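User: Fold this one for me? It's L-amino acid N-acyltransferase YncA.
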Amino acid sequence: MDPTPFPRLTGSADVSVRPARSGEASDIARVQAIAWRTAYRSVLPAELLDTWDEQAAAHAWRTAVEVPPTPAHLVLVALEQETVVGFTAFGPAELADGESPDPAGPTSEISTLLVEPRWGRRGHGSRLLAAAVDLALSQGVVRLRTWLPEADDVSAAFFESAGWETDGWARTLDTGGTPLRELRWHTGLVDEAADPT
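Assistant: Here's what I get for L-amino acid N-acyltransferase YncA.
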């Protein structure tokens, strides 16, 4: 049993978002595997899905929860009752080659935000994103960004509906097979805090 108490960040008795516990690493890896193999089968390269190692992923998520690279790196889980149904991870963003720091302040990056498809359309993704925004604001972050596969229209529509937009940056990842092209999306948090509409 994890001795550290974790506050509920958002939600009610039935649905909530809070920081992940180390014992939930296998649940996070399970959500990631199911989401990738179902909702993302047409988006992610087959080579990546075929060689997916859920046990290694669970170990990586346990490390991310127990010993994050910095205190600003966080993993959050979405719960329905006591079942982990989604998660997100974020932390300080690294500058791309030729990119200058934002003069307004620090930028953080959401590395992943996934909800297990059978629990979709119940607000879990929105609650995860809202909690990430609230925590980033509490850390003094002025901008959030994320990378999405160019072919991922569903995630693009989700972030666009939350006020995000592409910022002109793109990258191509070597997956050991078919290259994966991604576009970068971003939103300004200072403006959001000042004008909630």
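One thing worth pointing out: Strands lie at 10-11, 15-19, 74-80, 83-92, 107-115, 143-149, 165-173, 180-188.
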